[in-house]
Amino acid sequence: MASTLGVLEALLRNPGAIATKLEVKQLLKALLKRPGAITSASEAKQLHAQILKHNPSSPLYTSTAICVYSNFKLLNQSLLLFKTLQSPPSLAYKSIIKCYAVNGRFVESLASFVDMRASGNTPDHSVFPSVLKACAFLLDLRLGEAVHGCIIRLGMDVHLITGNALINMYAKLQSLAESEKVFETMTTRDIISWNTVIAGNAQNGLHEDALAMVREMGGAGLKPDIFTLSAILPIFAQYVDVDKGREIHGYVIRYGFDKDLYVASSLINMYSRCARVEDSIRVFKITRQRDTISWNSVIAGCVQNGMFDEGLRLFRQMLKDNVIPGSVSFSSIMPACAHLTTLNLGKQLHGYIMRCGFDDNVFISSSLVDMYAKCGHIRTAGWIFGGIKGRDMVSWTAMIMGCALHGYAEDAISLFEQMKLEGIRPNHVAITAILTACSHAGMIDEGRRYFDRMTEEYGIRPGLEHYAAMADLYSRKGKLNDAYQLISTMTTPTGTIWSLLLSACRVHKNVDLAEKVASKIFEVDPENIGARVLLSNIYANDGRWKEAAKVRMTMRNMGIRKNPACSWIEVKNKIHTFIADDKSHPLHDEINIALCELQEKMELAGYVADTSEVLHDVDDEQKKYLLYGHSERRAIAFGIMSTPAGTTIRVIKNIRICVDCHTAIKLISKIVGREIVVRDNSRFHHFRDGECSCGEYW
DNA sequence: ACGCTCCCTG
């Protein structure tokens, strides 16, 4: 045997070598027993050549050649030979089934398996794993069960690898009881058997079972490896159990598993889900070998924890390091653009997405809908939404929330109802979106109805965000006592929720309630800057300058400072920021002149400054002057000066727009014939022809 | 031959 193979090697490695027909025949026979003797694709081709030369019509030799080609994953060569066979022998079938499977052609792999059965050939332990893998990939439980039946009849279910493949198939098809049963009946199990059943439990929500099996495997003399760890780390990520996660991290370090990409990505994800972004960045930084997935993990971690700039920085770094972004990279980074309202960057990424052919990805489309809506382009958002094939609840929610933020409550409601008609059950976020829509349009009855029925109809109990939306709904509408009652029914109302009511007290000038609400806030959240600023403004607004000053004093003593009010506008790819009374913009004087001209036209149109919103203890003339300095007006004036007539002006402001500015901008939109879109800290206002989309609720 | 990680909506 050894000598025959030696001759064969000489033949194969030296294309010029000559052999007799008898020699070749013997060699091929030897090869039939040991196809693995062929060690490269070019040797495989030499073998094929010898067969063609000496005995092209032998099904046995052809099958051998197919088998050898298959071992090198050469599907096309295998297929060419396979098609020459009238009735392929077992070896040919087995080889072609495996070859299809390793090339990811699962449908064809299964079709060949069915052909093989139909032709009366008996499959064996060498094909079942591939066939089961194909069933798992194609989510074909019925065929998988049929294959299992076949395996049992042939007595192959004791075969280790076939058993492992069965466990995996049932786990992927969420047939956990079956998967467990196969595991139990196996006579020999290896670490793959354990890992497969552990991963199956972990991914299907049987977290405790998965963890119990990790403990049990020690009793079977097996130690958790990289597969075990990357399967169970997501459990701690989901439970936000950073202590257990850290324990695993320690184990990972002790066994030197921290060099593994999968383990590293799971650790990065675990830490960021537990809001420990610093730790996930640390793990990322010491991971030398990085792939798209580890980059995605750290980028998503930053974005989900509100570190948008860091996320963008890492995204750029990834591109610089020549790591090709995948669809997940884009759906991870897009929310950063949405939150930062960096429309231009969002558009650039959108272009990149289209060039990559990712624009039909539902995750990406949903993030684009959200990004465009949050950047003020609700029509573009709607256009993208309309083009999504296979919309899921997230896509609908993004669109509904977009409409809500822009004050288009009727559209939001009809979308919500349409979603339900399409058989999609809303989750808690979708309900938050519809409540927000009602809130921004002052639709008390509709909002109340959705709120009252959510538990009964959708099986979702009101959470903080739903109470917040309802408190906001009552507050915006001026139903301050209803809001107070509702919040009081909560077991543990947060400072944030009380703050919604507090800002309504400011709008509706209810000082007594404001004091009561403020004390509630300071009880649970003494550091709440926003609430103290609001309270001081409420006092000032009421002319109670002494109390206002006292609140400011307390803030100063506590060492807290409020963020200055500011507005910004993007013109020609550059963001221009305006802070109230700040004169640093290069066109400051020109902007002032433009504002004065506008002011005259506004006064001709009947505008009277509402100085009640100026919270400084100065005379009326000065108050009027202070109003001109409001940052959103300067941003708008600058936008009008620096863009062609008719261009929509888009301004973003970090705090609520004031009543006087709201009136002024309505007039400005009419005077200059422009659509002006202003986003404040809670929603969008579309000013057009003297009207605003908010209908005076904001 | 069979097993593992990442992504969207408030």
What is this entry, summarized?
With 698 residues, the protein is mostly helical.
Notable traits:
698 residues, Serine Threonine Protein Phosphatase 5, Tetratricopeptide repeat, 37 helices, 4% strand
Shape: elongated
Distance between the termini: 89 Å
Poorly predicted residue ranges? none
The percentage helix is 55-70%
Find the count of extended strands (DSSP E, 2+ residues): 6
What composes the largest sheet? 6 strands, mixed
Rg is: 34 Å
Overall pLDDT metric = 89
Number of helices: 37
Strand content: under 5%
Structural summary, described in words:
Helix 7 (about 105-120) packs across helix 8 (about 130-135), helix 26 (about 430-440) runs parallel beside helix 28 and helix 34 packs across helix 36 (about 630-640). This protein is elongated. The longest helix is centred in the last third of the chain and has 17 residues, at about 590-605. It is about 65% helix and about 5% strand. Among the domains are: about 390-460, no CATH class; about 465-560, Serine Threonine Protein Phosphatase 5, Tetratricopeptide repeat (Alpha Horseshoe); about 565-690, no CATH class. The chain has 37 helices and six strands. The structure holds one DNA strand of 10 nucleotides.
